[in-house]
Amino acid sequence: MFIKTFTIRNFRNFRNAKFFLNNKSVNSILGENASGKTNFFYALRLVLDDSLPQNAKQLSSTDFFNGLDHPSGHWVVLSFVFGGLGESDEELVMANHAMQMASGDAEGVFTFAFRPKIHIRQQLFQRTNTEPNLQIRKENVKNYLSGIQIDSANYETVAFVRGTVDYLDDNEYESVAGNFNNYIFPNPDNDDAALLGAMKPPYFSLVKEVNCTYVKALRNVVADMKYSKNNPLFKLLVQKSNEIEGAETVEGAVKQLNRDISDLRQIKELSTALKSTLLKAIGQTYSPSLNITSGLPESIVELIQSLTLLVEDSYGYKGTGKIEDLSLGGANLIYLALKLYEYETNREGDDKIAHFLLIEEPEAHIHNHIQKTLFSNFSLENAQIIISTHSTQISSVSKISSMNVISRKNNYSEVYWPSKGIDSEEVNKIERYLDSSRSTLLFAKSVLLVEGDAEQILIPALIKAVFGICLDELGISLIKMDGTVFKHISSLFDENRLKINCSIITDHDQPFLNGVTDYANQEYMNKLSNSAVNGQTRYNDLNNTYRANAYIQPFFASNTFETELILAGNSDIFINILDSIYTQQARIDVITNHLNGQDSEKCYFALHLAKKVGKGWFAIMLADKVHERSHVPSYIIKSLKHVLTDHDKNNIFYEIMSYRMQKQDIEINTIQGTNKQEKLISFSQLYPSDPLTKLMN
Predict the structure, then answer these.
(1) Distances (CA, A) of 647 to 6, 405, 408
(2) pTM recorded for the entire structure
């Protein structure tokens, strides 16, 4: 049996979220910090993990979705759809609690609900039934709920099987929990078992039927391993101590060793001297008894449990052997190995019908190569593994077909499914293309897709210099595509997949020359014409493909990035690198004149320099020369505006305004306005040609 889907309603930072965990082997949960990965695991563990105490299922007000006006009256719902239910599973597991939805179906539903007890729900229904006026009813219900504490007196934990309610659908949720807009609540005496499912009071737990091991985030495992409660080695030693043959012989040897140590002449002399000193100081009446004796554990169980690890960071490395002197990464790897072995040990000889291994962020302090190797080797027979991460190394080797991405919004988190609706062949192509640098798009707030090295190097440098803010700070990933084939990666951004804004930055490749010149021959013109044909095809194709997609928008340089850059008014940064390319001043002067000449000259010689040096290195040289007075090409500004659609633009623009004014030694208080919005408007009116004004407009 394995989890196919897991839905969460009203739990912590999830208002309503659905996770697809179709992979019977390894599923990955990706997300930025504070997106809810730990909350996701805790929700799973409430139903599956026997190591959680039973009272953990009695939730509190802080466990409810923090976007609710008031949690009282609402339900927390965790619902599973399980796949792989066969006849033998039904016999072993469910007995009287069979989860199969219908005869012959190989899947079933199990729902955990934390809800008001029936006396609360009856009171809510009575207020619905006796007061037709919405405003009065609203006040009555609010007053009643304000006095309800979320505790064991008022709330209960129940489980349903075979239910058909889609709790993520607001209408269906309201049909069972109540409508908190119109304050209409159903009669609990008329609960529809066909809808909710069969209830198994007081609480039907799956933990007796499944094996679930949770490996928490590896943050301070050295401290954890010092205490038996958290030390996985201790648990394994406890298991082994009961299996040892010849225990009596070992115990006898230790007892004799204790006697031999205690009988040593020096030990006895020290013991006698201490007793004498104590008697002289305190006297016989008040003096405590004192003897020095060897205290090695004489029970085989205690002996085994006192064993410790002798560890080193690598074979051949000579250190102290103590776990506290191990590198953080080495300690994490050992802890993880112990937990994996604990999991395997727990499985031996059991008759469970499902095995789940939950691993939270295993990448901490672990080298990149080890992260990728570790994830690639995660595979256990007949076990479903769910692993969370914000490591680009792990995400680059995980399959997007078994990936859920949690995205943090203002006061809630959404779940995206990157492969939803994409055929398997296309998914395979994307997975092969997502290396450790490109997989950053899975964690981004928004994405810029660019053609090559020049854009990858220069765009971030230009934005930082001109706007005083870096793309990483904005949560924007800039991904180099190494070509103009954007379709595979851009297909990830969609209403049904990653709901984040993506700008495609590419070239239209339209000719900047009308005919042959003294520096451009016919062969060069032919190349421009051929490029123009391809550029127009690309222009039409991208615009047509994404016309109806609100998340993706292509932006085109009229010709290429380098020509747009110099035509925007950046001749100075091109001229400033000439002495790094040429040694003869006469040649520098000639090129300088061209770079200050007609637009066509500027474009030709900008591309000439890029070809001479190499586009990537040329971009690095230019990046060193950009400054706050440099000009950002208009199509780059438009692409940036698109990816900032869902950002807090007013605060971002205000930060940029402050930076630009500070660079020009202008006091911020010279800008009129009582708030940020008014000051931004005043700024745009005073400086209509400023890059920030262009960005805002």
Answers:
(1) 29, 19, 12
(2) 0.79
